[in-house]
UniProtKB/TrEMBL annotation:
It is found in: Mitochondrion matrix; Nucleus. PANTHER family: F-BOX ONLY PROTEIN 3, POLYMERASE DELTA-INTERACTING PROTEIN 2. GO terms for biological process: DNA repair; error-free translesion synthesis; mitochondrion organization; negative regulation of macroautophagy; positive regulation of mitotic cell cycle. Involved in DNA damage tolerance by regulating translesion synthesis (TLS) of templates carrying DNA damage lesions such as 8oxoG and abasic sites. May act by stimulating activity of DNA polymerases involved in TLS, such as PRIMPOL and polymerase delta (POLD1). This is Polymerase delta-interacting protein 2. SMART domains: YccV-like. Keywords: DNA damage, DNA repair, Mitochondrion, Nucleus, Phosphoprotein, Transit peptide. It comes from Chinchilla lanigera. NCBIfam families: PRK05461.1. It comes from the Eukaryota.
């Protein structure tokens, strides 16, 4: 068995990562420091830290962050597991897992192509498959480097006061799929810089990983479970652009003698090809159980028109939708532009907007 399992360069903003994972002959060191585009791949993962003074030119220093572990093919990562995000490159720590149902229309399409269907018609049935995601904290030192590729304040809640549209966010909180986790170990007792790290986790060198959940983390998870829970994930690929959607129910508010139900949805766009494309437009169709159908068109998403390339293949963002009904559906398309000026539409997989049956008051802040 070859010692080197994988070696790959990952570009994240102005930061470049190069990794080498070893399976049979032990692990390699993971270093953090700084990088500009074109930073040469190495056996270790590197970032760059610039040092400057009046009498000395700027230089680079490599710091050892930790040691890579072999990614788990089976089983789940435990609370306190340190990791590097395989796509966005940030350092993080696992808080707790979620078991979601993944509805992959690409798998359904492959299955329908194999089935005998002479007429070539009929809708494809999408069956959900259990998939593990993790609630994680992002290292604050890495947030500036990923802000152009992934929102670092994407997990939002309804504020509990008179303004029915007011939202607040917990910075540096994210959801990560199992396959995006590149685990590593560290001898640092506080390896992740986040204001909640030491509130949620306690260092215990007798454990593996050596960070265990404090009671505050368990209490916070239980208190905010309805508004954090990840249950359904929807995925579809069109012309090598994969769209993944995760909807979250946020709660209900009363406004002008009516009930308004809120959802947050997180979308990840991934370019699976080497050709450069740019997102130009979005086109949404939003159906409410009350019988209304709304069409929304606009330039880009969240004020941006991201470019997806081989070096920076992914973009992730969150947005919100409200309905005057307890459930509904959303679907649509993203329009992309090729370098030659031609356009093509990418399908957004349809997904349901469902409210919790046991309605509770959404959180008004961090509950401990």
């Amino acid at each position: 068995m070859a010692a080197c399992v994988a070696r790959r360069a990952l570009a994240v903003g102005s930061r470049w990562w190069s990794r080498s994972l070893t399976a049979a002959r032990g692990s390699r060191p993971l270093c953090a420091a700084g990088g500009a585009p074109g930073f040469p791949p190495a056996a270790t993962t590197t970032t760059q830290r610039h040092l400057s003074s009046r009498n000395r030119a700027e230089g680079k220093v490599l710091e050892t962050v930790g040691v890579f572990e072999v990614p788990k093919q089976n089983g789940k990562y435990e609370t306190g597991q340190l990791f590097l995000h395989s796509v966005f490159g940030y350092r993080g720590v696992v808080l707790f897992p979620w078991q979601a149902r993944l509805y992959d229309r690409d798998v359904a399409s492959a299955a329908s192509e194999k089935a005998e269907n002479p007429a070539g018609h009929g809708s494809k049935e999408v069956k959900g498959k259990t998939h593990t995601y993790y609630q994680v904290l992002i290292d604050a030192r890495d947030c500036p480097h990923i802000s152009q590729r992934s929102q670092t304040e994407a997990v939002t809640f309804l504020a509990n006061h008179d303004d029915s549209r007011a939202l607040y966010a917990i910075p540096g909180l994210d959801y990560v799929s199992h396959e995006d986790i590149l685990p590593y170990t560290s001898t640092d007792q506080v390896p992740i810089q986040h204001e909640l790290f030491e509130r949620f986790l306690l260092y215990d060198q007798t454990k593996a990983p050596p960070f265990v959940a404090r009671e505050t983390l368990r209490a916070w998870q239980e208190k905010n479970h309805p508004w954090l829970e990840l249950s359904d994930v929807h995925r579809e690929t069109t012309e090598n652009i994969r769209v993944t959607v995760i909807p979250f129910y946020m709660g209900m508010r009363e406004a002008q003698n009516s009930h308004v139900y809120w959802w947050r949805y997180c979308i990840r766009l991934e370019n699976l090809d080497s050709d450069v494309v740019q997102l130009r437009e979005r086109h949404w169709r939003i159906f409410s159980l009350s019988g209304t159908l709304e069409t929304v068109r606009g330039r880009g998403v969240v004020g941006r028109e991201p470019v997806l390339s081989k070096e920076q293949p992914a973009f992730q963002y969150s947005s919100h939708v409200s309905l005057q009904a307890s459930s509904g559906h959303m679907w649509g398309t993203f329009r992309f532009e090729r370098p030659d000026g031609s356009h093509f539409d990418v399908r957004i997989p349809p997904f349901s907007l469902e409210s919790n049956k046991d309605e509770k008051t959404p959180p008004s802040g961090l509950h401990w």
